[in-house]
Design brief:
The chain crosses the membrane at residues 12-29, 49-70, 82-103, 109-127, 172-192, 204-225, 231-251. It comes from Bradyrhizobium symbiodeficiens. It is found in: Cell membrane. This is Probable membrane transporter protein. This protein is mainly α and 256 residues long. It has one domain. Helix content is 77%, strand content 0%. The two termini are 29 Å apart.
Length: 256
């Protein structure tokens, strides 16, 4: 038996290999810089396979990759502040999941492309929230991030921009972020499962793509400290921009 015998019926071997290539590149970005995986993966992968399938695929493989980080994050995080922002995700994730489950694939791809382009501009701006900490604002940021995660697994930039600007120790900020996404991913898993987005097809595909993504994460992590972070971040930004452009539905007749 070959790998093709285990693939979902709507996924050819060439599609699976293309998803593996995208997963390796996006995993490398995450391993080195700690961000960018979804912003690279989703625009490209959703132009190769159904957005619902690739969103569930990324959720599963990224949740497994991040799970070992949660115990340490639990010890170091400001759990009270994290709980407030997680409350927002509890609202936002199901809403984003609902839209992912009912929208037409092409419409979803346009939304993903627009979202990722906006989030890239947010990253490029260097925005950090430096105002006072308000519960309503934390819930709002959590809801926005949760919505982006539910729709396209792209909830990172709002949370990163918010917490890295707070007057707290970097180690606590990082732990808060890791813990938040552990909770957000759990909400997404439940939400995706109840709407049928976590399917046999997505789980089978995760067994094929997941190891390649993990290799990319490990490779990116091995580059940290050896390559210039400034240069590598610029490369990540460029990759995100190219992913947005290449993933545009209007280019389907040209690139695909």
């Amino acid at each position: 038996m070959s790998i093709a015998d285990f693939l979902p019926k709507d996924v050819s071997l060439s599609i699976a290999m293309a998803l593996c290539a995208v997963a390796f590149v996006s995993g490398t970005a995450r391993g080195f810089s700690g961000f960018g995986s979804a912003l690279i993966f989703m625009p490209l992968a959703s132009s190769i396979a159904a957005p619902r399938l690739v969103a569930a695929l990324l959720l599963v493989i990224d949740f497994i990759a991040a799970a070992p980080l949660l115990p340490d994050a639990w010890r170091k995080a400001d759990r009270k502040a994290t709980a407030v922002i997680v409350l927002g995700a509890l609202v936002g994730v199901p809403v984003g999941t609902y839209f992912l489950s009912v929208l037409e694939p092409v419409t979803t791809r346009w939304i993903i492309s627009c979202f990722v382009a906006a989030l890239l501009l947010l990253l490029l701006s260097g925005w950090r929230y430096r105002g006072k900490d308000h519960a309503w604002l934390s819930v709002g940021i959590g809801s926005l991030s949760g919505f982006c995660s539910g729709l396209a697994q792209t909830g990172g930039p709002p949370i990163v921009g918010y917490w890295l600007g707070r007057p707290i120790a970097p180690i606590v900020a990082r732990a808060n972020i890791v813990l938040f996404f552990g909770a957000s991913d759990f909400f997404s898993l439940v939400s995706y499962a109840t709407t049928g987005l976590i399917s046999r097809e997505s789980l089978v595909l995760s067994l094929i793509v997941g190891p390649v993504y993990a290799i990319g994460v490990a490779f990116g992590a091995s580059l940290f400290g050896r390559a210039s972070e400034k240069v590598f971040r610029a490369i990540c930004y460029a990759l995100i921009a190219m992913a947005v452009i290449a993933g545009l539905p209007v280019l389907d007749g040209v690139l695909r």
